[in-house]
Amino acid sequence: MTKTSHSNTLTGWREWVALPDLGVDWIKAKIDTGARTSSLHAFDIQEFDREGESWVRFRLKPWQDSQEDTVVVETPVHDRRAVRSSSGHAQERLVVMLLIRLVDREVLAEVTLSNRDEMGFRMLIGREALRRGYAVDPARSFLGGRAPREARRRNRGRD
After folding, report:
1. pTM score
2. Among residues 123, 13, 152, 14, which one has the least CA distance to residue 61?
3. Are strands 24-31 and 14-19 parallel, antiparallel or unpaired?
4. Is 157 contained in some domain?
5. Contact 8/134 with Cβ under 8 angstroms?
6. Considering the domain boundaries, does residue 36 fall inside one?
7. What's the structural domain count of the chain?
């Protein structure tokens, strides 16, 4: 058995997470041990140069099927990766570093940007983030708590 520097935090197969550096308090994420890297729903993705460094500007809607609370993000590009989607198609995606609050702990994680409009979750949390001290219970959900009721109503109660 491999030892970690901290104890495992239990997470369910889906969780409400926060992206504190982006001002996003609630976004529903699927915990995906089949994915290496985490992924975030992003659209209007525009790469640009800032003082000789590659940056990206994108928009995200934390709430499924909602136009409310659209967030505009500008952040450095960490990497570019060929990622194979669940349908088997490979595409190059930009990778950014994001702080993720998952079940009352924060981890810095590599996150690919992709349009997830057709997917059931705005975010996937992959193995690279989970291996920093998380254990997944596939029979449980929302162990880190739920978004407040008024916030969930904006999300059409989809929790």
Report:
1. 0.85
2. 123
3. antiparallel
4. no
5. yes
6. yes
7. 1
